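Forwarding these from the shared drive since the link keeps breaking.
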Amino acid sequence: MPTEPNAVTTSSLPLRLLRSPLGRILVFFITLTLIGMVLGRIYSGLDLPQGHLAMRDVTPLLAAFKIAPAVLAYWLLVRTIENRRVDELAARKALPHLLAGIAAGALVFSLVVGSLWAFGAYVVDGTNRDVAWLGPILVLGVGAGVVEEIISRGVIFRIVEEGLGTWAALFISAALFGGLHIWNPNATAWSAIAIALEAGLLFGLLYHATRSLWVCMGAHAAWNVTQGPVYGIPVSGFEQQGLLRSHMQGPDWLTGGAFGAEASVVALAICSMVTAGCLAVAVRRGSLVAPAWRRKRVTSA
């Protein structure tokens, strides 16, 4: 029986395009937009609050509507286009990896605050007994940790790494991560660069070393919650009321100014040391990925 090579070729070309790095990134963002539109209609139909809400007014249901589009779009991308299990979000890894990430994020930012306190830049004035925990944890912790890590590390870093290699993925994902924060309150060009260097590179290498989004989500969430609701420091420009009533004193290059400690050279220095440690682990393992064309040359040879 004769075969139909043209039909096979024609059907495989679109699939190859969809499975290419650029194709998968585009599919994710298109799916994210469509799911967001559908859930937006459902949100409005349920007569839930519209417009900007203060963090203290955010409930688990409202937070779920914000998180669901990214989670669903990522799951569909991996299961249908990539045709594999979502190993980086495997259920068996959730608890241990989240706890490890939370511990790491809280520890690193506590080192930042401890250093600022030692320099006389961070001053504790007292404590707040009426801290609103739930809303900030849902927005700064769960929301930012899940959505930003899925987009920045799960999609951008992971897929770019497959095509252009680890170094390009690190710089591209870090630059985009920093650039997204330029629109925050009190943001400056320096604060965006600082976020890119200290958090973008660190979380990218953390994902590279662990291949777990749970670890990155836990570290990101703990960093934000420790910074704001615990130490009372603005989180990426957003003012916070923390358990500790505090204020900063000193030059902006030391304190981070109105943007918060993330724009401090202290945070940059400490995060850079942790990033260097993660990079050393990757180099020792030999896990840094070369660009696709170099891998093909090696395979051919």
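-- next protein --
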Amino acid sequence: MSATAIRARLRALTGAVAVGVTLVMAVQGTAHASVSSTPDKTVGLSGPAIFDLTVLDSGRIIVGGSFTKIGSYPRSNVGAILPTGKADPTFAPSTNGEVRAVAASDDGSRVFIGGTFTEVNGEPRHNLAAVDAVTGALIDTWRADTTGTVPTVKSLDVQGNRLYVGGKFAGIDGATKQKLAAVDVTTGNLVAWNTWINGNVNEVRVSPDGATVWVGGSFTRIRGLDRDYFGGIDAATGLPTSFVRAPSGGYVITVAVNADGSRVYATTENNTIFAYQPTVSDAPIWERKLGGNTHAMAISPTEIYVGGHFGGATPYLASLDTATGVPTSWDPKATGLKGGTWSLVIKDDSLHAGGQFTHFDGVQQRLYARFAGTPTP
């Protein structure tokens, strides 16, 4: 996004009135062009929802959720979409429960899935598994089952040879390790990482340099130190960083980190998005309240695309200026089931969305959508 003209003050004021934003520090945004508000024509899915997705370097999109078909191909909660937008006829793993999280190894050879299942491709796997990225075949040598009372894997993120796992569980890979763990990408063995969290982890996101693991959820302490619902953890020591957020807004739903790691965003149960610059201050740069919870965020140099079950002028999908939190004019006019949008990923020249939407501006596009533009993070 090469435009550099300063956004007019009038637009900032009218945007704040329309959606409701609290600016903690007055910072003007930068003019830019959003991705197209009309999604590409791509395959639709049958079922309630896509909960997460990842885009491989090849352009293939791996989706996980609760669904039964991608196009005409039967698929049980996990599948793939080709760069052309058509269903991938080859990638066909299956689970007997929802897939809530999807991630890929750095080399793109394997895909990790997490959720609330006990079988993958008919073989025992409890809430976490690795499959071949091309065929979907279960990787037999990789196993890191989770245990507990109704255990659930809610979030996955890969950094180098570590797969970070967040959720609601009491044990993983045969060891007592609650809520958050690191697992070896190649072997599936638990990585020795001395950290501890006293509540569920809803999202785990690693800084681009791999040094800090950002987590959000319903916890209040990390390694015995007060960290209400959101915090950074040293990837080497497992100790929380010095960043201490004020416990405003309730538990954290999702977390995002920008491309250089300088800013971190968190959304909370009271429908608010908070933007932080942790090395500068514990106080938010800005905060914005929407008409419903935000489940997903994707960050470009000038915009933060947000998805959730909020309503208002731009339901389920919206775009905010990264510097100010002021809404842009981008509006794909999404409609569908109440859950709205659950996952957003920027990859190269497109924004990918997954959720429970069914139409955009009256045109059917079920559960997955791709918006072309220039949003490279």
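Residues 9-19 form the longest helix (11 residues). The radius of gyration is 20 Å.

- D.
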